[in-house]
């Protein structure tokens, strides 16, 4: 249990016997002012001390390390959870925006072949509080640098749709209690069809990104094994339904791997899926991950990335190339947690 896991009823219980407005004051401190209970000066000292030591109000995340890259514009945290599991989040300042990339699970069970998190295996689901506190800590850090956190992407460790209920309650807290715009929240999935269908029924206008990476079943099943359960045809049908219901533009993510999914044929296959859905395509040159196998995959060359993007553009597909952040600190897409477990083992 931790402070951002508590429902209103739990806060009321914690403050039983106090004036009713104390609950609102505590919520404002936690979600808007982002201050520690110990610094809650509107509370009388005795109450502050009692609350400050309440185990229910403990912090969920213990920052083990903080690394900075891109001249201070990218920051990665490694957090230890109460049970010793490890997760990472990444804060990125852009010219006009500040984004945090958060984890939804410790590890990941999806086992995508090119992703460090997938290779390190699955530990457990994150609680609502563990998800929300990543955003709170990022917002606090942003504030310290004179910036305002305004975007949240569920693109860290884990498959958010495999932890849908907690992720969704966290989204409600982030948009409701913390006041971030739903349109500034992005959920990224390998393509879990039942949860895409669930999202289609939600009123909150969050963004959906789908990690496609291949547009034929043979290749996609190799790169993204869950494709065997939800093959491309099934996935596309659920996306058609989603777009029809929400009228929102989806994004396909495509990590460009040299000689694997960066040919003219891949352009044509991807376009045939993206065009009818009016989807946006986000290209990410594959980031290197530590692997032992000799056949390790390489990112496409900048020329090949340009050619691929140009090919999609010619076919009328709205395409962007993601600028990679934090490679030097293993904070880039797909690099999270490869080393977190190792660090934790060194520091019991
Ligand atoms: N499980 C979710 C959330 C993770 S998002 C999902 O797969 O969508 C992380 C994104 O980075 C995904 O699109 C993932 O496929 C991509 N990715 C993973 N490994 C990568 C790598 N080595 N280089 C570039 N992108 C990678």
Q: For the record, what CATH class of the largest domain applies?
A: Alpha Beta
SSE string, helix = H, strand = E?
HHHEEEEEHEHEHEHEHHEHEHEH
List the bound ligands. Answer: S-adenosyl-L-homocysteine
Task: Write down how many β-strands occur, each being a DSSP E stretch of 2 or more residues.
Answer: 12
Measured distance between first and last alpha carbons: 22 Å
- Shape assignment: elongated
Major sheet details: 10 strands, mixed
Going across the biggest sheet, name each strand in turn.
1-2-3-4-7-8-9-10-11-12
Per CATH, the superfamily of the largest domain is: Aldolase class I
**Residue share in helix:** 25-40%
Tell me the structural class: alpha/beta
Radius of gyration: 21 Å
Number of helices: 12
Tell me the domain tally. 2
Q: Beta fraction of the residues? A: 15-25%
Low-confidence stretches: none
CATH topology of the largest domain: TIM Barrel
CATH architecture assignment of the largest domain: Alpha-Beta Barrel
Mean pLDDT: 93
């Amino acid at each position: 249990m931790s402070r951002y896991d508590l429902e209103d009823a739990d806060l009321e219980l914690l403050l039983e016997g106090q004036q009713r407005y104390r609950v609102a004051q505590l919520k404002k401190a936690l979600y808007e002012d982002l201050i520690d209970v110990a610094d809650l000066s509107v509370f009388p000292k005795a109450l502050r001390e009692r609350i400050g030591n309440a185990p229910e109000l403990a912090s969920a995340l213990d920052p083990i390390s903080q690394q900075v890259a891109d001249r201070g514009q990218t920051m990665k945290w490694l957090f230890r959870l109460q049970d010793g599991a490890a997760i990472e989040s990444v804060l990125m300042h852009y010219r006009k925006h500040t984004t945090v990339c958060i984890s939804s699970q410790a590890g990941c069970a999806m086992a995508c072949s090119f992703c460090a998190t997938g290779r390190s295996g699955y530990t457990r689901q994150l609680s609502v509080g563990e998800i929300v506190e990543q955003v709170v800590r990022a917002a606090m850090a942003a504030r310290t640098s004179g910036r305002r956190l305004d975007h949240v992407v569920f693109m860290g460790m884990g498959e958010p749709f495999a932890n849908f209920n907690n992720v969704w309650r966290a989204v409600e807290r982030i948009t409701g209690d913390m006041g971030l715009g739903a349109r500034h929240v992005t959920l990224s999935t390998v393509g879990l069809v039942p949860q895409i269908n669930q999202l289609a029924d939600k009123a909150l206008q969050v963004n959906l990104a789908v990690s496609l990476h291949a547009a034929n079943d043979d290749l996609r099943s190799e790169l993204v094994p869950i494709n065997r359960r939800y093959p491309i045809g099934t996935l596309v049908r659920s996306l058609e339904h989603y777009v029809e219901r929400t009228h929102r533009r989806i994004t396909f993510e495509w990590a460009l791997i040299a000689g694997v999914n960066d040919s003219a044929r891949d352009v044509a296959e991807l376009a045939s899926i993206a065009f009818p859905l009016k989807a946006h395509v986000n290209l990410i040159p594959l980031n290197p991950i530590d692997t032992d196998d000799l056949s390790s995959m390489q990112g496409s060359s900048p020329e090949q990335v340009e050619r691929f993007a140009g090919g999609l553009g010619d076919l009328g597909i709205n395409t962007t190339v993601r600028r990679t952040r934090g490679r030097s600190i293993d904070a880039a897409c797909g690099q999270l947690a490869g080393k977190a477990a190792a660090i934790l083992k060194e520091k019991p």
